Amino acid sequence: MPLTGVVAPPLDETAKAILEAASRRFLHYGYGKTTMSEIARDCNMSTGNLYRFFSSKLDIAEAFVRHLRGEQIRRLREVVGRPGLSTPEKLRTFFKTKLKLVYDRFHSRPKAYELSQEILKERLAFAEEWESAEALVLCEILEGGEMTGDLPVCNRVRMARILQDAFFRFTSSAVYYEGDYDVLAGELDDLMDLILDGITHRKLRDSQ
Amino acid sequence: MPLTGVVAPPLDETAKAILEAASRRFLHYGYGKTTMSEIARDCNMSTGNLYRFFSSKLDIAEAFVRHLRGEQIRRLREVVGRPGLSTPEKLRTFFKTKLKLVYDRFHSRPKAYELSQEILKERLAFAEEWESAEALVLCEILEGGEMTGDLPVCNRVRMARILQDAFFRFTSSAVYYEGDYDVLAGELDDLMDLILDGITHRKLRDSQ
DNA sequence: GGATTGAACGCTTTTCGAAGCATTCATTTC
DNA sequence: GAAATGAATGCTTCGAAAAGCGTTCAATCC
User: Fold this and answer.
1) Interface with chain B: mutation pick from A151, A161, A169, A176, highest number of B CBs within 10 Å
2) What is the mean pLDDT of chain B?
3) Between A156-166 and A124-148, two packed helices, what is the crossing angle to 10 degrees?
4) Which of A24, A161, B41, B158 keeps 20 to 30 A from B189, CA to CA?
């Protein structure tokens, strides 16, 4: 068995293994009921060694939620990028998909929901990052509306912010999703109708 | 001292005294740190006797929050009823005032805020009642818009609901008011501009 | 005999010592 | 000597006993 010449697997491999082991446990038992020793054991290493790859347990959780976010953003881009959608339809699809994602996470993946909640509460910066990432997708949609003349908007960044505010009720992971999905989706549709009318007939008021 | 002929103060008087004593303590020490014995002592009666007037501690708290709600609704009606306001201005004033009320309660009357939170979490029906009461004010504003032709809306009840959804971010007592007031107010204004444009140029779509 | 009391009941919250955990770092491994 | 370990540390959580509380109701009062 050669002792030299064999390049050790890159650090990232190990980090990935840790993250995977942790994720499994987080999803199954929750953040609080997962211990660093367990994660270490799953990876055949000591607790101390974990800290060469992540500087705290919360950082592992953040990496995991970061992954969830990635999936979510990818999904949003996907549904919004489907061919044949007008810009208004894209906006509607964006928020409806987001509602569905958050609603489903809340109702059928409670551990994942809790985990997001905990991380976003501790890591304000990360929460803002997430919002920005979504705002970016919105801006891209609006850019499309500008190009096709479909739904022209002067200040796209600002409009994205306004839209996020308007649909907060339907998309914030901070709210507790009691009601029936179809009712929520219906109300979202109503609001979207109104807002699209607003954008279409916008008296130019975007200042600055 | 006449024993007959002196009508005992009406029950309501006693209930009012209890409510007042309880409110003082709720506001000063919070719901959890106020005991029924203390309330009873403040009113010079036994704990058992309290239950002739309120069937539980939570009911006293609800009565108190009901009072808060009354004040708030009265205030909303007041600012919205000021002469010389157009219907759009009334809508804007309504939501801006609501934001200010919730924001201020959160920041400068934390005990009152907590109390509302607790009651609204326990008493779902009461929370809905509150929403309905505000929806009613909105409907009245919209009715004015219909009459003056200022801002005609077909389905007022539905529009009220949509507006409540849209401004949820700024007016829900469920959200944690971290940000700066002026920033929030600014975003509210932006959203209101957009929505007013929407209402004004509404493609008639109110179904049913 | 209706109004009022306050002790009694069962449940919740607090307390506080013990156990468990995240994190560190002197030591060991290769 | 870089990588890895696991015992040591100080903080948090847990559990069980005790105290406290909301609520009830038999006894008392007027």
Assistant:
1) A169
2) 89
3) 120
4) B158
